[in-house]
Structure prediction request, 262 residues.
Amino acid sequence: MGANDPAPRAIVSVRDASKLYASSNGELNWAMTDVNLDIGEGEFVCAIGPSGCGKTTLLNAIAGFVGPTTGSVTAGGQPVTGPGADRGVVFQEYALFPWLNARRNVEFGLKMLGLGAAERRARAEELLALMGLSHAARRYPFELSGGMRQRVAVARALATRPKVLLMDEPFAAIDALTRASLQRELLRLWRELGLSVFFITHNIEEAVFLAQRVVVMSPHPGRIREIVEVDLPYPRERADPAFGAAYARIAAAFAQSEEVAS
Ligand code: ADP
Ligand code: MG
Prediction:
């Protein structure tokens, strides 16, 4: 997306969203305040910022797991009132069911869509193939490496054929080499499936490698500090000086947001 291209149509719109949490001792905490963000159709957006700046709260509001205290969230033009098949979610911790094999994990959400057994199975097999995991369809989570488990989690998130993929630090617990290949695979899926992706990370390099726009957040209260456009072609090269320049811009915004944190 070049600077002069028209903005894509928003598939997710967050308007003036704030979230207030009250802890059991009565303390009030604004987890996010005045968040305004559009995620365009087919756009890849990363969010970055220190711990506690409201990244997960924002993602959960888009996913429909929490309702904002003020403001609104829409997906596909409809108000978000709860989780939906149009939005797939991948968490940091492998949220796989340990008692189900890989294929059954991928099938899990499909019953609710009213698909029959044969159709559920076919779709799960198709997605496992897409993730290069056909050979592991009958393995249980404990028999899979961390990288393979996250591939299963991505397959499961894609099973309902969502337009939007929401990912909360999905590769944070994965070793560096596996992480790099997961990043490349994710970019391939993004392209092939025409997804819109909202991806949270702690890692500036990951954000520059993946995103068209990087949302830098700061805490106390959690809010958007700056949105940095990364106007570089894909596939991106970490050795490219333009990559380093984008990294430096985001690192500067991130450092400011950490000053706020301390
Ligand atoms: P991040 O993902 O950026 O680390 P979170 O969105 O998880 O940030 O949290 C933002 C703030 O809201 C933090 O101060 C956190 O302690 C608080 N918070 C998050 N979830 C809850 C909750 N369910 N109840 C109370 N406070 C919460
Ligand atoms: Mg978080």
Observations:
- The first strand starts at residue 10 and ends at 22.
- Helices lie at 55-63, 102-107, 117-130, 146-158, 176-193, 204-210, 241-261.
- The pocket of magnesium ion (ligand 2) is lined by residues 55-56 (CB under 6 Å).
- The chain is about 35% helix and 25% strand.
